[in-house]
Write a structure and sequence with these properties.
The protein is mainly β. It has helices at 68-78, 123-128, 133-136; strands at 5-12, 21-23, 25-29, 33-34, 63-67, 91-94, 105-108, 111-118, 143-149, 151-154, 158-161. It is built from 3 helices and 11 strands; from the N terminus they run E-E-E-E-E-H-E-E-E-H-H-E-E-E. The protein has a 7-stranded mixed beta barrel. A 3-stranded antiparallel sheet has the order 4-3-10, with no helix packed on it. The longest helix has 11 residues, at 68-78. It starts with a strand and ends with a strand.
């Protein structure tokens, strides 16, 4: 089990491929996502929306997280510098091993989530950023999570395992 960490930055993007907007806080809604984000279930304008409107929402689209330490590491190791939010993840964390949260329940600010799967980098991210980012972020591209209980997520809040 991993220890607790903190939220560094919070981002949403209202549409696919637009620049991520940094927020001081965002409302997390169980089974729907972050209010104002492209993957929020009422709008679903994200790049990877693959389900039909009458189909049940797929797991892992509510919230994405990435470790600030991973962003720093790819700059140091591969010379790839990502601007704030350019990683396309909703929450930037500090001092928490996100890979260890797959299959685990955890608190992010006031919201309760469950780690669904790793958020491996994709060709789409590389197309929006720069060559090499896909390889640099393999196995450290973050976490996809489901929101189980509503709550506010704020910069500076605690992230902690619940099990």
């Amino acid at each position: 089990m991993t220890g607790s960490g903190t939220i560094g930055r919070v981002f949403v993007a209202p549409d696919a491929e637009v620049e991520m907007d940094e927020q001081t806080e965002v409302e997390a809604i169980a089974g729907q996502g972050l209010r104002g984000d492209r993957y929020f279930s009422e709008i679903e304008t994200g790049t990877f929306v693959e389900w039909e409107p009458d189909e049940e929402r797929r797991d892992g689209y509510d919230l994405t997280l990435i470790e600030q330490e991973a962003v720093t590491a790819i700059e140091r190791e591969a010379g790839i510098e990502l601007a704030p939010g350019e990683h396309r993840r909703n929450v930037e964390t500090r001092d928490v091993a996100l890979n260890h949260l797959v299959g685990q329940r955890f608190r992010v600010g006031d919201a309760v989530c469950r780690g669904n799967r790793l958020c491996e980098p994709c060709n789409h991210l590389q197309r929006l950023t720069q060559d090499g980012v896909l390889q640099a972020l393999v196995h450290r591209g973050g976490l996809r999570a489901d929101i189980l209980e509503d709550g506010l997520i704020r910069s500076g809040d605690i992230i902690e395992p619940l099990e």
